[in-house]
Design brief:
Bound molecules: adenosine-5'-monophosphate-propyl ester
EC number: 6.2.1.1
Number of helices: 19
Low-confidence stretches: 1-7
GO molecular function: acetate-CoA ligase activity
Number of strands: 29
Family: Belongs to the ATP-dependent AMP-binding enzyme family.
Keywords: Acetylation, ATP-binding, Ligase, Nucleotide-binding
Helix content: 25-40%
Protein name: Acetate--CoA ligase
């Protein structure tokens, strides 16, 4: 993003009424690290056995709430039922065809408990027990949340693979984790169309897969291939199983037991298995949900993310349910069946908190405010944004047309690795500046440093680091200590290196400035240029490939791939299409390059190094500067002729 918020732009002080009632208190920022989190963990989490030590910090590994025993599912479900909130709606389920759909329905906490128990008994029947990895490859249907909670209930760590990823991506991740059971659904339903899901999973299974059983939840009832002895429909699996909570008690887990792995893109190599454990993660997501979104007993909360990403884990499943909230769970996509479907949902359920991405906001903005204006959105109290920097225009639009001109927007910065929100304004406390995440959450200590490790002052762009641990921080990369240390703890020996550029404005508020590594951010989805390059060179006609990102007014960034072909092949539009689809089947549709450019070679220096800076300039349609060090400067001219920057 080029233009972002600054202290020169608009500022919005907190509403004094909100300041009086807000859950977050200014004094929290004055508390000591351990004091703050100790208080939160005791107040918000039910422990089967109390912890002895709040924090054991042996850089770069933290242990939180050491010795404590708890269960995430118990905290998200059972305790609410036991506490008399069984009839409260946990999920307003909104199917693909919107809130008017005949299939729209509510699930109370008591019903959720029974569904989770039944699912957990089904997993047990398949032999899954404490410590056994389970893969989940599903769309935004309630069964996906139920499956996650069922795993947590029996102490089986899950790895959710985004439903839009390819089967190959599913197999790679599940096999890396050693998952024997994969839970999926027959078909995906998005934008009114049924698409493959179970079949994708089948197609991706490799010869050395660890997956032995596939549980198939029926969504469309479509005809999908089933392999005898390996695949089972969920309904058949659980037909005669109990759903009484006493039939499957919540397994007491150590605070540091694995809750899940979530694979994410790094700048090189295979996706990284980010490790999250139980006690610290749950405390972190429960506390941040409560304070950042100022949730109350009667809040109606909607996080319009996908459970396949960390936002879905932390702010659709664990955070809101641990707070006993009523949430909307939405299967669909913005704009279907109508462009006002989101606003209808808010109107129908009286949504008070909406948490979404800048990309989604920009889509709505493009369609026009008339859709939002045609609905009653007066229930909205708090808005959230996540995944990428939000440009001030989108921020202002969001506040004006969705937030009734007054709802505060929480621009939340965090990562798969951080587990929960770390930099964000707080309702009733922070004077908001459009386009900036602004302030560290209590207990979080950011710094902005130059490459030599010097702490930078106001208006000096540098690298964002965190100098203190937080409860939801990853506990490493799965079976890869070296990569964990290299990626996050080697640039600076004493601080977590986030991979984001940032600077302080005139007032010391933090402005995020995008990734500084080869990780692109398309519509808030992290994709490494390396992964796309690897997928391209796997195609038999591709000799070499290099990928750059250019700015995109809708998706934040867009992927541009530069490809040289084997032999004399010049390439044509048909081959471009073939290669784009090839990337989609290898990784997933979200990684499909927006543009593909052919040339007889890539721009290389005499030592054979690809000049990536040039690729970025070409992709952006910018001046190239000095190209004299190139072996063959004609390459860039050929490329430039093909680019259509937006
Ligand atoms: O570059 C930052 C960007 O998203 C990256 C993390 O991506 P992921 O692990 O997929 O998690 C996304 C959801 C938390 C970060 O390194 N990012 C996330 N939130 C923001 C952001 N950039 C600017 N402002 C944000 N609010």
């Amino acid at each position: 993003m080029s233009e972002q918020g600054s202290s020169q732009g608009n500022q919005y002080p907190p509403d004094p009424e909100l300041s009086k009632t807000a859950n977050a208190r200014p004094e929290m920022k004055e508390q000591g690290l351990e004091e703050f989190w100790d208080e939160q963990a005791k107040q918000r989490i039910d422990w089967f056995e109390p912890y002895e030590t709040v924090l054991d910090w042996q850089l770069p590994y933290a242990k939180w709430f050491v010795g404590g025993k708890l269960n995430a599912c118990y905290n998200c479900v059972d305790r609410h039922v036991e506490g008399g909130k069984g009839d409260k709606v946990a999920l307003h389920v909104v199917p693909d065809d919107g809130s008017d759909s005949a299939d729209a329905h509510d699930i109370t906490y008591a019903q959720l408990q029974r569904q989770v128990v039944k699912f957990a008994n089904g997993l047990k029947k398949l032999g899954v027990g404490k410590g056994d990895a389970v893969g989940i490859y599903m769309q935004m249907i309630p069964d996906a949340v139920v499956a996650m909670l069922a795993c947590a209930r029996i102490g089986a760590p899950h790895t959710v693979v985004f439903g839009g990823f390819s089967g190959k991506a599913v197999d790679e991740r599940c096999t890396d984790f050693g998952a024997k059971v994969l839970i999926t659904q027959d078909e995906a339903l998005r934008g009114g169309k049924a698409g493959a899901q179970k079949k994708n999973a089948d197609d991706g299974l490799s010869a050395d897969t660890t997956i032995e059983k596939i549980v198939v939840v029926k969504r469309t009832g479509g005809d999908v291939p089933m392999t005898d002895g390996r695949d089972v429909y969920y309904d058949d699996l659980v037909a005669d199983l109990d759903d009484d909570p006493s039939s499957c008690p919540c397994e007491p887990m150590d605070a540091e037991d694995l809750l899940f792995l979530l694979y994410t893109s790094g700048s090189t190599g295979k996706p990284k298995g980010v490790v999250h454990t139980t006690g610290g993660y749950l405390t972190g997501v429960t506390t941040t949900t409560n304070l950042v979104f100022d949730v109350k007993d009667d809040s109606v909360y909607w996080c319009a993310a996908d459970i396949g990403w960390i936002t879905g884990h932390s702010y659709i499943t664990y955070g809101p349910l641990a707070n006993g909230l009523t949430s909307v769970l939405y299967e669909g996509v913005p704009g279907y069946p109508d462009k006002d479907v989101w606003w209808k949902i808010i109107e129908k359920y009286g949504v008070t908190i909406l948490y979404t991405s800048p990309t989604a906001i920009r889509s709505h903005m493009k369609w026009g405010e008339q859709y939002a204006q045609s609905r009653d959105l007066s229930s909205i109290k708090i808005l959230g944004s996540v995944g990428e920097p939000i440009n001030p225009e989108a921020w202002e639009w969001y506040r004006k047309y969705v937030g009734g001109g007054s709802a505060p927007i929480m621009d939340t910065w965090w990562q798969t690795e951080t587990g929960h929100i770390l930099i964000t304004p707080l309702p009733g406390i922070t004077t908001l500046k459009p386009g900036m995440a602004q302030q560290p959450f209590p207990g979080v200590k950011p710094e902005i440093r130059d490459d030599e490790g010097n702490a930078l002052g106001l208006n000096q762009p540098g690298n964002l680091v965190l100098t203190q641990p937080w409860p939801g921080m990853m506990r490493g990369l799965y079976k890869d200590d070296e990569r964990y240390r290299d990626t996050y703890w080697s640039k600076y020996s004493d601080a977590y290196f986030a991979g984001d550029g940032a600077k302080y404005d005139d007032d010391g508020d933090i402005m995020l400035m995008g990734r500084i590594d080869d990780v692109t951010n398309v519509s808030g989805h992290r994709i490494s240029t390396f992964e796309v390059e690897s997928a391209l060179v796997e195609h038999e006609l591709v000799a070499e490939a290099a990928v750059a990102a250019r700015r995109d007014p809708d998706t934040g960034q867009a992927i541009v791939a530069f490809v040289s072909l084997v032999g004399e092949n010049q390439g044509d539009d048909e081959l471009k299409q073939t290669l784009r689809e090839h990337v989609a089947t290898q990784i997933g549709k979200l990684a499909r390059p927006a543009e593909l450019i052919f040339a007889h070679d890539l721009p290389k220096t005499r030592s054979g190094k690809i000049m990536r800076r040039l690729l970025k300039n070409i992709a952006e349609g910018e001046e190239l500067g000095d190209t004299t060090t190139l072996v063959d400067p004609s390459v860039v001219e050929v490329m430039q002729k093909q680019v259509n920057p937006t």
